[in-house]
Amino acid sequence: MRYNRSFGIIVSILFVVCFFLLPLNISALNPNHDGCSQCHSLHNAPGQALTDGLNSLCLTCHGPAGTSSLIVGNHANSTAKYDPFNMDCIKCHNPHDDIENSLGGTNIKQIGHRSGSATIDTPNSGTLAVVFESQAIGSHADGDSTYDGVCEVCHTETTYHQNTSAGNHSHYVGQTCTDCHKHNNDFAGEGGGCKGCHSSSQDNGDGLPTRRAIGDEFSLTSHHVMGGAVTDDDCGVCHYEFVDSSYHKDNKVDLRNPDDADVSAIISFQQFSRLTSNNVLESWVTDVQVNFCLKCHDSDGVTRIDFIGNALQPFSSNTRDAPNVQFQFSKASHHAVISVGDNEYCTQTAANGDQITMESPWNQNSDHDKISCFDCHGTSGHGSANQRMLRTSIDFDAMMIVGSFTNGASVETFCTSCHKSSVYVSASDPEAVGSIFEDHAGSQSKHGAGGGNELGCMGCHGGIANWSGGSDNGSARGNIHGTSENWGFPSELPDNFIVGGWLSEIIVNSSSGSCRGGVCAHSGGQGKSWTR
Questions:
Q1: Residues 51 and 152 in one domain
Q2: Average pLDDT over residues 396-406
Q3: Cα–Cα distance between 344 and 366 in angstroms, integer?
Q4: Is residue 196 part of a domain?
Q5: What are 419's strand-pairing partners?
Q6: H or E element at residue 267
Q7: What is the rounded CA–CA span in Å between residue 83 and residue 432?
Q8: Domain of 345?
Protein backbone atom coordinates (compact mmCIF):
# COMPACT_ATOMS: atom_id res chain seq x y z
CA MET A 1 0.00 0.00 0.00
CA ARG A 2 2.85 2.37 0.90
CA TYR A 3 4.53 1.40 -2.37
CA ASN A 4 1.50 2.32 -4.44
CA ARG A 5 1.16 5.70 -2.69
CA SER A 6 4.83 6.51 -3.37
CA PHE A 7 4.44 5.53 -7.00
CA GLY A 8 1.45 7.80 -7.38
CA ILE A 9 3.31 10.73 -5.88
CA ILE A 10 6.22 10.22 -8.29
CA VAL A 11 3.88 10.07 -11.31
CA SER A 12 2.14 13.26 -10.18
CA ILE A 13 5.42 15.10 -9.77
CA LEU A 14 6.58 14.00 -13.23
CA PHE A 15 3.30 15.17 -14.73
CA VAL A 16 3.63 18.62 -13.16
CA VAL A 17 7.27 18.90 -14.28
CA CYS A 18 6.38 17.91 -17.82
CA PHE A 19 3.45 20.33 -17.84
CA PHE A 20 5.72 23.28 -17.11
CA LEU A 21 8.74 22.17 -19.12
CA LEU A 22 7.16 20.98 -22.36
CA PRO A 23 5.69 23.52 -24.81
CA LEU A 24 1.94 23.90 -24.51
CA ASN A 25 1.47 24.05 -28.29
CA ILE A 26 3.08 20.70 -28.97
CA SER A 27 1.04 18.49 -31.28
CA ALA A 28 1.21 14.94 -32.53
CA LEU A 29 4.62 13.82 -33.68
CA ASN A 30 5.17 13.80 -37.42
CA PRO A 31 5.49 10.14 -38.49
CA ASN A 32 8.71 10.90 -40.36
CA HIS A 33 10.39 11.73 -37.05
CA ASP A 34 11.07 8.51 -35.16
CA GLY A 35 10.47 9.42 -31.56
CA CYS A 36 11.27 12.39 -29.38
CA SER A 37 14.87 11.35 -28.84
CA GLN A 38 15.67 11.85 -32.51
CA CYS A 39 15.66 15.61 -31.88
CA HIS A 40 15.45 16.05 -28.09
CA SER A 41 18.12 15.41 -25.48
CA LEU A 42 15.92 14.41 -22.54
CA HIS A 43 18.51 14.61 -19.79
CA ASN A 44 20.38 17.67 -18.66
CA ALA A 45 18.48 19.87 -21.18
CA PRO A 46 16.86 22.89 -19.50
CA GLY A 47 13.44 24.15 -20.31
CA GLN A 48 11.79 24.12 -23.67
CA ALA A 49 14.84 23.88 -25.95
CA LEU A 50 15.74 20.23 -25.34
CA THR A 51 17.77 20.20 -28.56
CA ASP A 52 21.37 19.83 -29.63
CA GLY A 53 21.20 22.99 -31.78
CA LEU A 54 18.66 24.27 -34.25
CA ASN A 55 19.85 24.43 -37.87
CA SER A 56 22.63 21.95 -37.32
CA LEU A 57 20.13 19.52 -35.80
CA CYS A 58 17.77 19.79 -38.78
CA LEU A 59 20.58 19.53 -41.30
CA THR A 60 21.78 16.32 -39.67
CA CYS A 61 19.07 14.63 -41.71
CA HIS A 62 18.10 17.31 -44.22
CA GLY A 63 21.61 18.21 -45.32
CA PRO A 64 24.06 16.74 -47.82
CA ALA A 65 25.46 14.32 -45.25
CA GLY A 66 22.09 13.36 -43.84
CA THR A 67 20.42 9.97 -43.90
CA SER A 68 17.33 11.17 -45.74
CA SER A 69 19.24 12.37 -48.84
CA LEU A 70 17.27 15.64 -48.81
CA ILE A 71 19.66 18.48 -49.56
CA VAL A 72 18.22 21.74 -48.26
CA GLY A 73 19.50 25.06 -47.02
CA ASN A 74 18.48 27.85 -44.70
CA HIS A 75 16.85 31.03 -45.90
CA ALA A 76 20.02 33.13 -45.87
CA ASN A 77 21.54 36.13 -47.61
CA SER A 78 25.02 37.53 -47.93
CA THR A 79 24.66 39.65 -51.06
CA ALA A 80 24.70 43.42 -51.31
CA LYS A 81 20.98 43.65 -52.02
CA TYR A 82 19.90 43.05 -48.41
CA ASP A 83 21.61 43.10 -45.05
CA PRO A 84 23.02 39.66 -44.18
CA PHE A 85 20.55 37.37 -42.43
CA ASN A 86 20.08 33.70 -41.65
CA MET A 87 16.68 32.28 -40.71
CA ASP A 88 16.42 29.27 -38.41
CA CYS A 89 14.52 26.31 -39.82
CA ILE A 90 11.93 26.50 -37.04
CA LYS A 91 11.00 30.05 -38.03
CA CYS A 92 8.94 28.48 -40.79
CA HIS A 93 8.61 24.83 -39.77
CA ASN A 94 7.01 23.26 -36.72
CA PRO A 95 8.77 19.88 -36.53
CA HIS A 96 5.89 18.11 -34.82
CA ASP A 97 3.04 18.07 -37.28
CA ASP A 98 1.21 19.71 -40.18
CA ILE A 99 -1.11 22.38 -38.76
CA GLU A 100 -4.56 23.65 -39.66
CA ASN A 101 -4.44 27.08 -41.27
CA SER A 102 -6.74 30.11 -41.16
CA LEU A 103 -8.77 28.80 -44.09
CA GLY A 104 -9.57 25.55 -42.32
CA GLY A 105 -7.21 23.48 -44.45
CA THR A 106 -4.00 21.78 -43.39
CA ASN A 107 -0.56 23.14 -44.14
CA ILE A 108 2.00 20.73 -45.52
CA LYS A 109 5.73 20.55 -44.86
CA GLN A 110 5.00 21.39 -41.21
CA ILE A 111 4.72 25.07 -42.11
CA GLY A 112 3.60 27.42 -39.35
CA HIS A 113 3.26 27.40 -35.58
CA ARG A 114 -0.01 27.03 -33.73
CA SER A 115 -1.76 30.12 -32.46
CA GLY A 116 -5.36 29.14 -33.05
CA SER A 117 -4.22 28.38 -36.61
CA ALA A 118 -0.88 28.26 -38.40
CA THR A 119 1.23 31.41 -38.09
CA ILE A 120 4.79 32.58 -38.66
CA ASP A 121 6.69 35.05 -36.49
CA THR A 122 7.91 37.31 -39.29
CA PRO A 123 11.14 39.35 -39.04
CA ASN A 124 9.47 42.74 -39.52
CA SER A 125 5.69 42.36 -39.38
CA GLY A 126 4.88 40.47 -36.21
CA THR A 127 2.90 37.23 -36.16
CA LEU A 128 0.98 36.57 -39.36
CA ALA A 129 -1.19 33.73 -40.63
CA VAL A 130 0.39 31.44 -43.22
CA VAL A 131 -1.30 29.16 -45.74
CA PHE A 132 0.64 26.41 -47.49
CA GLU A 133 -1.68 23.59 -48.45
CA SER A 134 0.15 22.36 -51.54
CA GLN A 135 3.28 22.81 -53.62
CA ALA A 136 1.18 24.06 -56.50
CA ILE A 137 -0.38 27.37 -57.49
CA GLY A 138 -1.68 29.63 -54.74
CA SER A 139 0.32 28.40 -51.80
CA HIS A 140 3.48 30.40 -52.43
CA ALA A 141 2.25 33.76 -53.72
CA ASP A 142 -0.99 33.86 -55.67
CA GLY A 143 -1.13 37.59 -56.45
CA ASP A 144 -4.35 38.31 -54.53
CA SER A 145 -4.76 40.89 -51.76
CA THR A 146 -4.39 38.37 -48.91
CA TYR A 147 -0.67 38.07 -48.41
CA ASP A 148 -0.51 34.78 -46.51
CA GLY A 149 1.48 32.62 -48.94
CA VAL A 150 4.50 30.87 -47.49
CA CYS A 151 6.88 33.09 -49.51
CA GLU A 152 5.17 36.46 -49.30
CA VAL A 153 4.16 36.37 -45.62
CA CYS A 154 7.60 37.60 -44.49
CA HIS A 155 8.66 39.81 -47.40
CA THR A 156 8.96 43.55 -46.82
CA GLU A 157 12.03 44.50 -48.90
CA THR A 158 11.79 42.24 -51.94
CA THR A 159 10.96 43.52 -55.41
CA TYR A 160 8.13 41.02 -55.76
CA HIS A 161 5.34 39.70 -53.54
CA GLN A 162 5.69 41.67 -50.33
CA ASN A 163 3.26 41.05 -47.45
CA THR A 164 1.46 44.32 -48.18
CA SER A 165 0.18 45.90 -51.37
CA ALA A 166 3.62 47.46 -51.90
CA GLY A 167 5.88 46.13 -54.63
CA ASN A 168 5.06 44.01 -57.65
CA HIS A 169 2.58 41.16 -57.17
CA SER A 170 2.45 39.94 -60.79
CA HIS A 171 5.83 38.16 -60.83
CA TYR A 172 5.28 34.56 -62.00
CA VAL A 173 1.72 34.43 -60.68
CA GLY A 174 0.36 30.96 -61.33
CA GLN A 175 3.73 29.26 -61.00
CA THR A 176 5.56 27.64 -58.12
CA CYS A 177 8.20 29.89 -56.57
CA THR A 178 10.53 27.01 -55.79
CA ASP A 179 10.80 26.12 -59.47
CA CYS A 180 13.39 28.91 -59.62
CA HIS A 181 14.06 29.69 -55.95
CA LYS A 182 15.36 26.35 -54.70
CA HIS A 183 15.47 25.40 -51.03
CA ASN A 184 19.03 24.13 -51.49
CA ASN A 185 20.07 27.52 -52.87
CA ASP A 186 18.76 29.41 -49.81
CA PHE A 187 15.76 30.37 -51.97
CA ALA A 188 17.89 32.73 -54.04
CA GLY A 189 17.11 32.84 -57.76
CA GLU A 190 19.04 30.42 -59.90
CA GLY A 191 22.43 32.13 -59.81
CA GLY A 192 24.12 32.82 -63.15
CA GLY A 193 21.56 30.82 -65.06
CA CYS A 194 20.48 32.75 -68.16
CA LYS A 195 18.46 29.80 -69.44
CA GLY A 196 16.87 29.13 -66.06
CA CYS A 197 14.94 32.41 -66.14
CA HIS A 198 14.76 33.26 -69.83
CA SER A 199 13.14 30.03 -70.92
CA SER A 200 9.73 31.35 -69.91
CA SER A 201 7.95 34.60 -70.64
CA GLN A 202 7.35 37.18 -67.92
CA ASP A 203 5.55 40.48 -67.66
CA ASN A 204 6.45 42.27 -64.45
CA GLY A 205 3.68 44.80 -64.94
CA ASP A 206 6.12 47.71 -65.19
CA GLY A 207 5.71 48.37 -68.89
CA LEU A 208 8.09 47.52 -71.69
CA PRO A 209 10.16 45.55 -72.12
CA THR A 210 8.54 42.24 -71.27
CA ARG A 211 10.72 39.19 -71.07
CA ARG A 212 9.91 36.70 -73.78
CA ALA A 213 10.68 32.99 -73.69
CA ILE A 214 13.91 32.81 -75.69
CA GLY A 215 14.82 29.20 -74.92
CA ASP A 216 12.64 27.71 -77.64
CA GLU A 217 13.77 30.30 -80.20
CA PHE A 218 17.09 28.46 -80.58
CA SER A 219 15.27 25.39 -81.89
CA LEU A 220 13.44 27.24 -84.66
CA THR A 221 14.17 26.77 -88.38
CA SER A 222 17.04 29.28 -88.41
CA HIS A 223 18.93 30.40 -85.35
CA HIS A 224 22.23 31.35 -83.82
CA VAL A 225 24.07 28.56 -81.91
CA MET A 226 24.18 25.98 -84.68
CA GLY A 227 24.31 22.25 -84.08
CA GLY A 228 24.06 22.12 -80.29
CA ALA A 229 22.08 23.10 -77.22
CA VAL A 230 22.40 26.73 -76.18
CA THR A 231 24.45 27.39 -73.06
CA ASP A 232 24.83 30.37 -70.75
CA ASP A 233 28.27 30.96 -72.31
CA ASP A 234 26.54 31.36 -75.66
CA CYS A 235 24.43 34.15 -74.16
CA GLY A 236 27.66 35.84 -73.07
CA VAL A 237 28.85 36.12 -76.67
CA CYS A 238 26.21 38.79 -77.28
CA HIS A 239 24.92 40.02 -73.90
CA TYR A 240 26.93 42.14 -71.50
CA GLU A 241 24.65 41.19 -68.60
CA PHE A 242 26.49 37.85 -68.59
CA VAL A 243 29.74 39.43 -67.37
CA ASP A 244 28.44 42.36 -65.32
CA SER A 245 25.32 41.69 -63.26
CA SER A 246 24.83 45.41 -62.58
CA TYR A 247 23.46 45.64 -66.14
CA HIS A 248 20.92 42.93 -65.40
CA LYS A 249 17.26 43.76 -64.73
CA ASP A 250 17.64 47.41 -65.72
CA ASN A 251 14.78 47.26 -68.25
CA LYS A 252 17.32 47.27 -71.08
CA VAL A 253 19.01 44.80 -73.39
CA ASP A 254 22.75 45.43 -73.28
CA LEU A 255 24.54 43.96 -76.28
CA ARG A 256 28.32 43.64 -76.54
CA ASN A 257 30.49 44.82 -79.37
CA PRO A 258 32.10 41.52 -80.48
CA ASP A 259 35.42 43.26 -81.08
CA ASP A 260 35.62 45.37 -77.92
CA ALA A 261 35.44 44.18 -74.30
CA ASP A 262 35.30 47.70 -72.89
CA VAL A 263 32.09 48.82 -71.23
CA SER A 264 31.88 51.82 -73.56
CA ALA A 265 31.13 49.47 -76.44
CA ILE A 266 27.75 48.39 -75.06
CA ILE A 267 24.67 48.90 -77.23
CA SER A 268 21.56 49.39 -75.08
CA PHE A 269 17.89 49.58 -75.96
CA GLN A 270 14.58 48.78 -74.33
CA GLN A 271 12.45 47.12 -76.98
CA PHE A 272 14.15 46.37 -80.28
CA SER A 273 12.03 46.87 -83.37
CA ARG A 274 12.28 48.00 -86.97
CA LEU A 275 9.27 49.89 -88.25
CA THR A 276 9.71 49.27 -91.96
CA SER A 277 6.88 51.65 -92.89
CA ASN A 278 8.98 54.53 -91.56
CA ASN A 279 11.54 56.16 -93.87
CA VAL A 280 13.78 57.02 -90.90
CA LEU A 281 15.99 54.27 -89.53
CA GLU A 282 15.72 54.04 -85.76
CA SER A 283 18.94 55.02 -83.97
CA TRP A 284 19.22 51.70 -82.14
CA VAL A 285 18.75 49.82 -85.42
CA THR A 286 21.78 51.52 -86.95
CA ASP A 287 23.74 51.15 -83.71
CA VAL A 288 23.04 47.42 -83.43
CA GLN A 289 23.73 46.84 -87.11
CA VAL A 290 27.04 48.71 -87.31
CA ASN A 291 28.49 47.98 -83.87
CA PHE A 292 27.10 44.52 -83.27
CA CYS A 293 25.89 42.49 -86.28
CA LEU A 294 28.59 43.57 -88.70
CA LYS A 295 31.34 43.35 -86.06
CA CYS A 296 30.79 39.60 -85.91
CA HIS A 297 29.73 39.09 -89.53
CA ASP A 298 33.05 40.35 -90.89
CA SER A 299 36.39 38.77 -91.77
CA ASP A 300 37.62 38.15 -88.22
CA GLY A 301 34.47 37.36 -86.21
CA VAL A 302 34.66 37.89 -82.44
CA THR A 303 38.02 39.41 -81.51
CA ARG A 304 37.46 41.05 -78.11
CA ILE A 305 40.13 40.14 -75.59
CA ASP A 306 37.89 38.33 -73.09
CA PHE A 307 36.50 35.87 -75.66
CA ILE A 308 37.83 32.32 -75.57
CA GLY A 309 37.04 30.10 -78.53
CA ASN A 310 36.94 30.02 -82.31
CA ALA A 311 36.45 33.63 -83.39
CA LEU A 312 34.61 32.72 -86.58
CA GLN A 313 32.48 30.15 -84.76
CA PRO A 314 31.73 32.07 -81.58
CA PHE A 315 29.07 29.81 -80.09
CA SER A 316 29.64 26.66 -78.10
CA SER A 317 28.57 24.22 -80.81
CA ASN A 318 31.18 25.52 -83.29
CA THR A 319 29.76 24.13 -86.52
CA ARG A 320 29.55 27.07 -88.93
CA ASP A 321 31.57 30.22 -89.60
CA ALA A 322 29.80 33.55 -89.34
CA PRO A 323 29.47 34.68 -92.99
CA ASN A 324 31.42 37.80 -93.92
CA VAL A 325 28.43 39.94 -94.87
CA GLN A 326 30.27 43.20 -94.26
CA PHE A 327 32.58 42.43 -97.19
CA GLN A 328 29.62 41.83 -99.51
CA PHE A 329 28.23 45.25 -98.72
CA SER A 330 31.48 46.80 -99.92
CA LYS A 331 31.28 45.23 -103.40
CA ALA A 332 30.54 47.09 -106.62
CA SER A 333 26.88 46.12 -106.56
CA HIS A 334 25.20 45.97 -103.15
CA HIS A 335 22.13 46.67 -101.14
CA ALA A 336 22.43 50.07 -99.46
CA VAL A 337 23.10 48.97 -95.88
CA ILE A 338 26.53 50.46 -95.11
CA SER A 339 26.81 53.10 -97.80
CA VAL A 340 24.12 55.12 -99.53
CA GLY A 341 22.59 53.45 -102.55
CA ASP A 342 23.16 54.95 -105.99
CA ASN A 343 21.13 52.61 -108.17
CA GLU A 344 19.40 54.84 -110.69
CA TYR A 345 16.68 52.24 -111.08
CA CYS A 346 15.65 52.63 -107.43
CA THR A 347 14.86 56.31 -107.69
CA GLN A 348 12.71 58.26 -110.09
CA THR A 349 15.21 59.19 -112.81
CA ALA A 350 15.42 59.51 -116.55
CA ALA A 351 17.28 56.19 -116.68
CA ASN A 352 14.16 54.26 -115.69
CA GLY A 353 11.70 56.35 -117.64
CA ASP A 354 10.98 58.63 -114.70
CA GLN A 355 9.13 55.79 -113.01
CA ILE A 356 8.85 55.08 -109.26
CA THR A 357 10.25 51.58 -109.04
CA MET A 358 10.34 51.08 -105.25
CA GLU A 359 7.52 50.60 -102.78
CA SER A 360 7.16 53.33 -100.17
CA PRO A 361 9.22 54.25 -98.20
CA TRP A 362 12.29 52.52 -99.67
CA ASN A 363 14.74 54.69 -101.63
CA GLN A 364 12.16 57.20 -102.74
CA ASN A 365 14.44 60.11 -101.95
CA SER A 366 17.41 61.10 -99.80
CA ASP A 367 15.39 60.56 -96.62
CA HIS A 368 15.58 56.82 -97.09
CA ASP A 369 18.63 56.13 -99.22
CA LYS A 370 19.95 53.54 -96.75
CA ILE A 371 18.32 50.42 -95.38
CA SER A 372 19.17 48.11 -92.49
CA CYS A 373 19.76 44.42 -91.89
CA PHE A 374 16.33 44.35 -90.27
CA ASP A 375 14.50 45.51 -93.38
CA CYS A 376 15.00 41.96 -94.66
CA HIS A 377 15.74 39.94 -91.51
CA GLY A 378 13.58 39.58 -88.42
CA THR A 379 14.45 41.52 -85.29
CA SER A 380 14.96 38.45 -83.09
CA GLY A 381 18.61 37.47 -83.06
CA HIS A 382 17.94 34.15 -81.37
CA GLY A 383 15.94 32.32 -84.00
CA SER A 384 13.15 32.46 -86.56
CA ALA A 385 10.56 30.15 -88.07
CA ASN A 386 11.84 31.27 -91.50
CA GLN A 387 15.10 30.23 -93.15
CA ARG A 388 17.94 32.80 -92.92
CA MET A 389 15.88 34.61 -90.25
CA LEU A 390 14.07 36.41 -93.06
CA ARG A 391 10.81 38.27 -92.70
CA THR A 392 9.32 36.04 -95.42
CA SER A 393 9.34 32.25 -95.55
CA ILE A 394 11.46 30.98 -98.47
CA ASP A 395 12.49 27.34 -98.93
CA PHE A 396 16.06 27.76 -100.17
CA ASP A 397 16.77 24.04 -99.81
CA ALA A 398 14.09 23.19 -102.36
CA MET A 399 15.30 25.95 -104.66
CA MET A 400 18.78 24.46 -104.88
CA ILE A 401 17.73 20.98 -106.03
CA VAL A 402 18.88 20.73 -109.66
CA GLY A 403 16.04 20.13 -112.07
CA SER A 404 13.30 20.95 -109.56
CA PHE A 405 13.64 24.66 -108.91
CA THR A 406 10.65 25.82 -106.91
CA ASN A 407 9.44 28.48 -104.55
CA GLY A 408 9.86 31.40 -106.93
CA ALA A 409 6.55 32.88 -105.80
CA SER A 410 7.71 33.29 -102.20
CA VAL A 411 10.98 34.86 -103.40
CA GLU A 412 8.94 37.24 -105.48
CA THR A 413 6.80 38.14 -102.46
CA PHE A 414 9.92 38.82 -100.42
CA CYS A 415 11.64 41.01 -103.01
CA THR A 416 8.56 42.97 -103.91
CA SER A 417 8.19 44.08 -100.32
CA CYS A 418 10.59 46.81 -101.46
CA HIS A 419 10.79 46.55 -105.27
CA LYS A 420 7.55 47.66 -106.86
CA SER A 421 5.71 44.62 -108.20
CA SER A 422 3.78 46.60 -110.81
CA VAL A 423 7.13 47.47 -112.41
CA TYR A 424 9.06 44.22 -112.09
CA VAL A 425 6.57 41.34 -112.09
CA SER A 426 3.51 42.79 -113.78
CA ALA A 427 1.39 39.90 -115.02
CA SER A 428 -0.48 42.09 -117.47
CA ASP A 429 2.47 43.95 -118.93
CA PRO A 430 5.62 41.89 -119.61
CA GLU A 431 7.28 45.06 -120.88
CA ALA A 432 6.75 47.07 -117.70
CA VAL A 433 7.99 50.64 -118.01
CA GLY A 434 10.84 51.40 -115.64
CA SER A 435 12.42 47.95 -115.75
CA ILE A 436 15.33 46.71 -117.84
CA PHE A 437 13.09 43.70 -118.41
CA GLU A 438 10.77 45.89 -120.46
CA ASP A 439 12.48 44.86 -123.69
CA HIS A 440 11.46 41.20 -123.31
CA ALA A 441 8.62 40.07 -125.50
CA GLY A 442 5.44 38.76 -123.96
CA SER A 443 6.24 35.24 -125.14
CA GLN A 444 9.42 35.15 -123.06
CA SER A 445 9.67 34.44 -119.31
CA LYS A 446 8.57 37.35 -117.23
CA HIS A 447 10.33 38.42 -114.04
CA GLY A 448 7.59 36.80 -112.02
CA ALA A 449 7.33 33.15 -111.04
CA GLY A 450 3.92 33.10 -112.69
CA GLY A 451 5.60 33.86 -116.01
CA GLY A 452 7.77 30.75 -115.98
CA ASN A 453 10.71 31.89 -113.82
CA GLU A 454 10.88 29.02 -111.32
CA LEU A 455 13.29 30.87 -109.06
CA GLY A 456 11.39 34.13 -109.19
CA CYS A 457 13.70 37.12 -108.82
CA MET A 458 16.57 34.84 -107.86
CA GLY A 459 16.55 33.30 -111.30
CA CYS A 460 18.78 36.22 -112.22
CA HIS A 461 19.79 37.80 -108.92
CA GLY A 462 21.55 36.58 -105.82
CA GLY A 463 23.48 33.52 -106.91
CA ILE A 464 21.21 30.69 -105.72
CA ALA A 465 21.84 28.62 -108.86
CA ASN A 466 24.69 29.14 -111.33
CA TRP A 467 24.31 30.46 -114.83
CA SER A 468 24.13 26.94 -116.30
CA GLY A 469 21.23 25.99 -114.08
CA GLY A 470 23.31 23.94 -111.59
CA SER A 471 22.94 24.17 -107.83
CA ASP A 472 26.53 25.03 -106.87
CA ASN A 473 27.37 28.64 -107.54
CA GLY A 474 30.78 28.63 -105.88
CA SER A 475 31.99 31.88 -104.34
CA ALA A 476 29.01 33.75 -105.75
CA ARG A 477 26.44 31.61 -103.99
CA GLY A 478 24.09 33.64 -101.83
CA ASN A 479 25.63 37.03 -102.56
CA ILE A 480 22.33 38.85 -102.36
CA HIS A 481 23.94 41.40 -100.04
CA GLY A 482 26.39 42.52 -102.70
CA THR A 483 28.75 41.23 -105.37
CA SER A 484 31.29 42.06 -108.06
CA GLU A 485 31.04 38.59 -109.59
CA ASN A 486 30.31 38.30 -113.29
CA TRP A 487 30.49 34.52 -113.58
CA GLY A 488 33.06 33.89 -116.26
CA PHE A 489 32.53 36.79 -118.63
CA PRO A 490 35.57 39.11 -118.42
CA SER A 491 33.76 42.27 -119.41
CA GLU A 492 32.36 45.29 -117.68
CA LEU A 493 31.32 44.66 -114.07
CA PRO A 494 27.78 45.68 -113.19
CA ASP A 495 27.45 48.77 -111.07
CA ASN A 496 23.74 48.66 -110.42
CA PHE A 497 22.65 45.05 -110.58
CA ILE A 498 23.26 42.11 -108.22
CA VAL A 499 23.69 39.37 -110.81
CA GLY A 500 23.67 35.65 -110.20
CA GLY A 501 21.66 32.56 -110.95
CA TRP A 502 20.53 32.17 -114.54
CA LEU A 503 21.75 35.60 -115.55
CA SER A 504 25.49 35.77 -116.04
CA GLU A 505 26.09 39.38 -116.94
CA ILE A 506 24.38 42.67 -117.57
CA ILE A 507 25.93 45.79 -119.03
CA VAL A 508 23.97 49.00 -118.80
CA ASN A 509 24.64 52.22 -120.67
CA SER A 510 22.40 55.22 -120.29
CA SER A 511 20.26 54.38 -123.32
CA SER A 512 21.35 50.87 -124.28
CA GLY A 513 22.76 47.68 -122.83
CA SER A 514 22.99 43.91 -123.05
CA CYS A 515 22.57 40.83 -120.92
CA ARG A 516 23.20 37.12 -121.28
CA GLY A 517 22.93 33.88 -119.35
CA GLY A 518 23.42 30.14 -119.74
CA VAL A 519 19.83 28.95 -119.59
CA CYS A 520 18.20 32.09 -120.91
CA ALA A 521 17.04 32.18 -124.53
CA HIS A 522 20.14 34.21 -125.42
CA SER A 523 23.59 32.94 -124.48
CA GLY A 524 27.14 33.66 -125.61
CA GLY A 525 28.41 36.73 -127.41
CA GLN A 526 26.73 39.93 -126.39
CA GLY A 527 23.50 38.14 -125.62
CA LYS A 528 20.37 40.26 -125.70
CA SER A 529 20.85 43.96 -126.50
CA TRP A 530 18.40 46.78 -126.22
CA THR A 531 18.03 50.46 -126.86
CA ARG A 532 15.68 52.68 -124.95
A1: yes
A2: 63
A3: 13
A4: no
A5: 358
A6: strand 267-269
A7: 74
A8: 324-371+418-532
